[in-house]
């Protein structure tokens, strides 16, 4: 019982410390509010499967931390990140809020895997792409193919 409580407290502290770090790293109050909301939306809608720090457990759920940015090396990969069912059919219906979450994932969680000069997602881009979600019976195969093509175009070393 104590071990379970300790794990829960540790996870709560990780969430709180991550939120504090994000807010402290941001110079502009309006930008801090955007990142704060994007972080909260990520934790609420994505973190349960992808992990609160972008590191999912050993499962079919992809890890995001230091890896997701390579998808932006190709236009196909960039579109994939929006069209994947968990994003395109997200309960976050506001396109700007979803763009903020994707930008948080790509730029903050993606870290060094995101190439310099990567364009942030816009609300209009999200609106257009989520209207055409990926339909497949094998999302893992589709992801692997998109990732392979993105990696071939990526100039990020070691990714």
TrEMBL record:
It comes from the Bacteria. Residues 31-109 form the Cytochrome c domain. GO terms for molecular function: electron transfer activity; heme binding; metal ion binding. The keyword Metal-binding applies. Keywords: Heme, Iron, Metal-binding. InterPro entries: Cyt_c-like_dom, Cyt_c-like_dom_sf. This is Cytochrome c domain-containing protein. The lineage of its organism: Bacteria, Pseudomonadati, Pseudomonadota, Alphaproteobacteria, Acetobacterales.
